[in-house]
What does this fold into?
Amino acid sequence: MDGRGLRAPLVFFIREVRVKRSFVLALFCLFVATPVLAAGVHVALTPALAEVEPDSDFTLELTITEADASFNGFDAVIEFDPAVLTFLPTAPIALQQGDLMTGACGNTFHRFQAAADSLVISDVLLCAAQSLTGPGQIYRLKFHAGPGVTTTFVRLRPPRTRFYNAGLYVLPVETADAEVRIGSAVGVDPPRAATGLSLRAFPNPARAGMTLHIANDRDGRQSVAIYDARGRAVRAFPAMEAAAGARSLFWDGRDRSGRRVAAGRYLVVVQEGARRIAEHLTLLD
It folds into this structure.
């Protein structure tokens, strides 16, 4: 047999290896994302305040609230108090996907896990070169309220709530929780929001980053920035129109370029109109 007889099978084998390698690389890029700074994403559990009757069902939506950076997938972890709320899965589970996701692509990778006190969601568009932006609904969740009269919260866990686009994480991600009031009596004023502007960081000190809990008693445009000991701004979150209530931001201990900052003391400042509040933060090695 001459060289030409061997060349054709060899060329076919090389092409097949290249195709398989490209397919594996595409899957790797889809599911193994690396950090990158972008315009960021604002995601909230809505409505921000849900007033429901005892022993009743209600729905919360995971919503992109602004026309932010493009993304083609997200992971989210949602926590709730199982002594007060019971999660009610839909059948099939795919119906929990939001209109923004299903309307952009008819083919998605969707994974959902429910524990007694938390929900883990992964949802990724599988259409080639397809991405989307807000505002819009990306997921919906149904709960059953217990028989008692109380107030509870359904929260997004910031470190594990992530968005990505073409294999790159979209940062920063700003989250907002939902307050659920069960059994607000007719003719009785509901509990009032905390007076003024408040800020709390947890955990503090921290090694891997911390969550900034911000509460305000009125609507207003908020800016959040973090300064080092010399007064230099190391990280600024996008300014936004914040509704009265509570919201959370996660600072991962990185500067505006995505580099890990040195251990030490920092100052976070929240500005809303003429109001200003600050808190010291401590990052550990």
Remarks:
- The longest helix spans residues 3-31.
- The first strand starts at residue 34 and ends at 46.
- The chain has two helices and 19 strands.
- Residues 3-32, 185-194 have pLDDT under 50 and may be disordered.
